Amino acid sequence: MTTINDPQIHLPETRDPYVEKIETQSISLGGNLADIYQERTDAELHDNNALSRHRERNMDNDTVEELKEKIERSGVEYLYYMVPTLRSRTVAKMVPAKHVVRNLENGVKFTRNALMDFQTDVFGNPIGADIHSKEFLAMPDPESFNALPWDTSVGRIFSTAYEPDHLTEVGGRPNAHDSRANMKRTHQLMKDVFGLTMKSGLEPEMVWVGDSITPKTIPGYNPAYQVEYLEGMRPIYKRIHEYANQLGFDMIEGDYEDKGQIELNWMFDEIEWTADRMVTYRQICSQVAREFEVEASFMPKPFLGEMGAGCHHNISLWDVDNNNTLEIPGVSELHLSQLGRWAVGGILKHAPGMMLVMASTVNSYKRFWDPGQFAPARADWGLDDRASMVRISANGRAEVRVPDASVNPYLSHSLLIAAIADGIGNKIEPVGPGEAGPDLPRTLGEAVEAFRESDFVQRSLPDLLAETYLEMKSNEWAEYCGIVSQWEFDQYWQAIP
């Protein structure tokens, strides 16, 4: 019996209208779209007028008055000017809200090491910057302003990092270590070069621990989806929804995944909004945990034999007419369009090198060693196949299953854009659905080497960012390898004689 998952199924020969648009765009721009995308990516980083344009946008009269009105109406007295770091945390400066116009024009200054979380290597040397490094300038993005719902006298506003005007040669350019700004630039280039907009929806899983929410489970049974355990988390998820909705989320569904683990989802959107919401969601959960005197963790694999905390990226590509180009119009059978197959082909080709971003910690790889826990091990794809790295779960949606809950969503989306640009521009065909692809790295050490060996992945990020990220993760692996664990004591303390 054949099923919809059978790779032998062939759809009727249908001309993919989106392929024609891409071919027309290639002729219009006069070259391979992947090459044009890469060239423009490099040029954007050397734009000395980027800061002045941001300042000009901020000082537009309508923008200034609108932000002042929002702040006054909300009652916000203090503002966090926030910038995400490479380790997927956020740093901020607090400034009284009455100075917002001055900050719109002049920004706020940060110590450069802040973007690297002030991380040092095993010898105590700072990574990515040192005591001699110059400050960077963070310019607020007015559209990102929100009052914090748990204390409406405090607001937050995401900011973009630049090199200060006074620095010779680089003054006015984007700061290469700003992963959020890098994602926004690359996404705009995908729109400009390919005429495509990426949207995504994330599935962040996380574990909650505390005396008041500890479930009583039955040995040998998994508590996933059972309403009784979801009820035990009711005060938690209700408070999260309350705060998230006030911060502009459209919360849609949630479930109980494993002991203490819940997944709450919000509506998919363009990746700029989705990535910012992921960072905000972590802050919401941290606040809710404080309020209920419990702990909330996005650790990818806290317990052996229980589900890891993934963060599947459900991506889709939309043309200028708001058509989802991953599906062929009029075809209801589960499928992937030709444009979609090229996009998946690019993702699979570069998957090993991208793993250092998608699974970014030592602990991330414990997900792939625990059998039966739905974590992919190969660069493959399938039609509604949960064993695959890329799962076509519905027409028009490709679920990338390797990212975990600790992922930097700006870096992950940036690399997916680059891989898709390469796949579409160079018409990279993936293996067939259900066919085995190459193995993925199984440790952080292997991922470091795959990243180091991938010229494409490193070229797809700003040089300084790629260099610093590689140093940070190489150091993390070195630190881990130097730790003597309890497992080693248990195995070897009295192993001989």
Q: What would you say about this model in short?
A:
The protein is α+β, with helices and mostly antiparallel strands. The protein has 16 helices and 15 strands.
Structure, explained:
The chain is an alpha+beta fold. Helix content is 38%, strand content 18%. The strands form 2 sheets. Strands 7, 8, 9, 10, 11, 12, 13, 14 and 15 form a 9-stranded mixed sheet that branches. Strands 1, 2, 3, 4, 5 and 6 form a 6-stranded mixed sheet that branches. β8 and β9 form a beta hairpin. α2 packs antiparallel against α6, α2 runs antiparallel to α12 and α11 crosses α13. The longest helix is centred in the middle third of the chain and has 22 residues. The termini are far apart. The N terminus is likely disordered.
Number of E-state strands:
15
Shape: globular
Contiguous helical run count: 16
Computed over alpha carbons, the radius of gyration is 23 Å
The profile of the biggest β sheet is: 9 strands, mixed
Approximately how much beta-strand content do the residues carry?
15-25%
Quote the distance from N terminus to C terminus. Answer: 58 Å
Question: Ranges with pLDDT <50 over ≥5 residues?
Answer: 1-5, 7-12
Main structural class: alpha+beta
Task: Compile the SSE list and pairings.
Blueprint: H1 17-29, H2 33-45, H3 50-58, H4 61-74, E1 78-84, E2 90-96, H5 100-106, E3 108-110, E4 136-140, E5 146-148, E6 151-162, H6 179-194, E7 197-209, H7 227-232, H8 234-246, E8 251-258, E9 261-266, E10 269-270, H9 271-292, E11 295-297, E12 311-318, H10 338-349, H11 351-358, E13 381-383, E14 390-394, E15 397-400, H12 409-425, H13 444-453, H14 455-459, H15 463-481, H16 486-492
Parallel strand pairs: 1-6, 13-14
Antiparallel strand pairs: 1-2, 3-4, 4-6, 5-6, 7-9, 7-10, 7-11, 7-12, 8-9, 12-15, 14-15
